[in-house]
């Protein structure tokens, strides 16, 4: 958090002049000020806060006014002006910038479902879209063609899907998994294929689609002839 910035100005910027006046009765001359003496007050702009995924890096002066500069952390892009100035009217020259992810996780917090649920060892389907790569995992029963589905709630653009496999055990169980994107919410194989992974690794498995795909549903699924279980931490 950064403190509010100040800049000084004259409340009455008109120069005070001496005005001459002649007395009518005494015949003596005397002088009087044309107005009240001006005062200087500090103008304070509102407090600034570090942006999410970024920070305030510098304070400087530009033409006598306080100026603040912002920086985003690696992997995030600045949206807005990098520098803003505290103006004489007590307002910043523009709104504070924000730091945005150029490739946001569109699956985060969206509805998720799975072909079956092995309740003894795992959490509900929603755990794969909670943003926690080290939390509880989802697990299906041992079955043929198990799947996990993410409903993006509307047709969206997908270029990359990250499947975060469990780490402590049995990550090879999802060897050969596939990813598809499309508007068919009932059959994973009916949508456009994004990619597959013959040999899955523990932790993140990054699947880069051959082109930008559009669709409402993202499926991570096993081949129909493969009898196994899926245990996933996240689908991003």
UniProtKB/TrEMBL annotation:
<dbReference type="InterPro" id="IPR000421">
    <property type="entry name" value="FA58C"/>
</dbReference>
<dbReference type="GO" id="GO:0010185">
    <property type="term" value="P:regulation of cellular defense response"/>
</dbReference>
<dbReference type="InterPro" id="IPR035976">
    <property type="entry name" value="Sushi/SCR/CCP_sf"/>
</dbReference>
<dbReference type="InterPro" id="IPR051941">
    <property type="entry name" value="BG_Antigen-Binding_Lectin"/>
</dbReference>
<dbReference type="GO" id="GO:0001868">
    <property type="term" value="P:regulation of complement activation, lectin pathway"/>
</dbReference>
<comment type="similarity">
    <text>Belongs to the fucolectin family.</text>
</comment>
<keyword id="KW-0768">Sushi</keyword>
<protein>
    <submittedName>
        <fullName>Uncharacterized protein</fullName>
    </submittedName>
</protein>
<dbReference type="Pfam" id="PF00084">
    <property type="entry name" value="Sushi"/>
</dbReference>
<keyword id="KW-1015">Disulfide bond</keyword>
<dbReference type="GO" id="GO:0042806">
    <property type="term" value="F:fucose binding"/>
</dbReference>
<dbReference type="Pfam" id="PF22633">
    <property type="entry name" value="F5_F8_type_C_2"/>
</dbReference>
<feature type="disulfide bond">
    <location>
        <begin position="72"/>
        <end position="99"/>
    </location>
</feature>
<dbReference type="InterPro" id="IPR000436">
    <property type="entry name" value="Sushi_SCR_CCP_dom"/>
</dbReference>
<dbReference type="InterPro" id="IPR006585">
    <property type="entry name" value="FTP1"/>
</dbReference>
<dbReference type="GO" id="GO:0046872">
    <property type="term" value="F:metal ion binding"/>
</dbReference>
<keyword id="KW-0106">Calcium</keyword>
<keyword id="KW-0479">Metal-binding</keyword>
<dbReference type="InterPro" id="IPR008979">
    <property type="entry name" value="Galactose-bd-like_sf"/>
</dbReference>
<comment type="subunit">
    <text>Homotrimer.</text>
</comment>
<keyword id="KW-0430">Lectin</keyword>
<comment type="function">
    <text>Acts as a defensive agent. Recognizes blood group fucosylated oligosaccharides including A, B, H and Lewis B-type antigens. Does not recognize Lewis A antigen and has low affinity for monovalent haptens.</text>
</comment>
């Amino acid at each position: 958090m950064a403190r509010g910035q100040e800049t000084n100005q004259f409340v009455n910027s008109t120069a005070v002049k001496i005005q001459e006046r002649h007395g009518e009765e005494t015949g003596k001359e005397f002088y009087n000020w044309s107005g009240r003496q001006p005062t200087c007050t500090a103008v304070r702009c509102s407090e600034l806060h570090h942006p999410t995924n970024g920070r305030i890096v510098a304070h400087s002066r530009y033409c006598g006014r306080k100026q603040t500069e912002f920086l985003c952390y690696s992997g995030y892009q600045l949206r807005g002006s990098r520098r803003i100035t505290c103006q004489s009217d007590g307002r910043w020259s523009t709104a504070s910038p924000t730091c945005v992810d150029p490739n946001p996780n569109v699956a985060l917090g969206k509805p998720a479902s799975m072909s079956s649920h092995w309740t003894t060892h795992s959490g509900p389907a929603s755990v794969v879209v909670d943003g926690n790569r080290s939390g509880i995992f989802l697990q299906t029963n041992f079955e043929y063609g198990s799947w996990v589905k993410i409903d993006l709630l509307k047709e969206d653009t997908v270029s990359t899907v990250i499947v975060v496999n469990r780490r402590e055990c049995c990550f090879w169980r999802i060897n050969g998994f596939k990813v598809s994107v499309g508007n068919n919410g009932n059959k994973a194989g009916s949508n456009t294929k994004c990619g597959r992974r013959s040999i899955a690794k523990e932790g993140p498995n990054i699947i880069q689609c051959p082109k930008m795909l559009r669709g409402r549903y993202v499926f991570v699924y096993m081949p129909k002839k493969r009898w196994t279980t899926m245990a996933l931490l996240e689908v991003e």
